[in-house]
Design a protein that fits this description.
The protein has 202 residues and is α+β, with helices and mostly antiparallel strands. It has five helices and seven strands; from the N terminus they run H-E-E-H-E-E-H-E-E-H-E-H. The chain has a three-stranded antiparallel β-sheet with strand order 3-4-6. Strands 1-7 form a two-stranded parallel sheet. Strands 2-5 form a two-stranded antiparallel ribbon. The longest helix has 32 residues. The structure holds iron/sulfur cluster (2 copies).
């Protein structure tokens, strides 16, 4: 009889703790139901990278003097500068330049120290590839003009965190009735113009 009562007691304890776990799980679910989605519908919508974003490096072949400063300042001596000496002009002639983005850490040192500014960081971040060897960009690939989120007609650009009310840093506490995440650049521009014309917030 005592064993039976103990089993009933254990069973009841288990049932109560299971119910408490289910309630906890459902409370999280219901809490999220009342929040609005903040997901960016990539790749149809993309966040505009910040102004100083360090993306794929752009290279201008004609400006390069093959000084190899970029190699010396690179923490992993990554850029490959192929050059030959022109004995008549006594100047180096660049024949090929490459950077392997499968290895590059995008620190920006090479861009910072290049004496002729032939390197620049772009806002291009979509560098996924099936074969990592294809990330080794030669001077032709490096010279391609970068794509931009704002100039791509197939993409709706969103400005990061622009949807948050002033002073609010946590998107989860914003009511579900607020508009969805992200503002179009035109909306941001219109707001800035309204503010500069003496509108709200000026
Ligand atoms: S530092 Fe600039 S100019 Fe010199 S080799 Fe590198 S890319 Fe060319
Ligand atoms: S960004 Fe940094 S790691 Fe990449 S090539 Fe330039 S110096 Fe090297």
């Amino acid at each position: 009889m005592f064993g039976f009562l103990q089993k009933v007691g254990d069973y009841t304890k288990d049932a109560v703790s299971a119910a408490s776990y289910i309630t906890q799980g459902l409370s999280v679910t219901f809490d999220h139901l009342s929040r609005r989605p903040i997901t960016v519908q990539y790749p149809y919508e993309k966040l505009i990278p910040s102004e100083r974003y360090r993306g794929r490096i752009h290279f201008e072949f004609d400006k390069c003097i093959a000084c190899e400063v970029c190699v010396r300042v690179c923490p992993i001596n990554l850029p490959v500068v192929d050059w030959t000496m022109n004995k008549q002009t006594k100047k180096k002639e660049l024949s090929n330049y490459s950077i392997d983005f499968g290895v590059c850490i995008f620190c920006g040192n090479c861009v910072e120290y290049c004496p002729t500014n032939c390197l620049s960081m772009t806002e291009e971040y979509e560098l996924a590839a099936f074969d990592r060897h294809s990330l080794n960009f030669d001077n032709v690939a490096l010279g391609r003009l970068p794509t931009s989120v704002t100039s791509d007609p197939a993409v709706v650009p969103l400005r990061e965190l622009a949807y948050l009310p002033k002073g609010e840093l946590d998107p989860h506490v914003v009511p579900a009735t607020s508009p969805r995440a992200g503002k179009l650049p035109e909306q941001v521009l219109a707001e800035l113009k309204a503010e500069s014309n003496g509108g709200p917030g000026s």
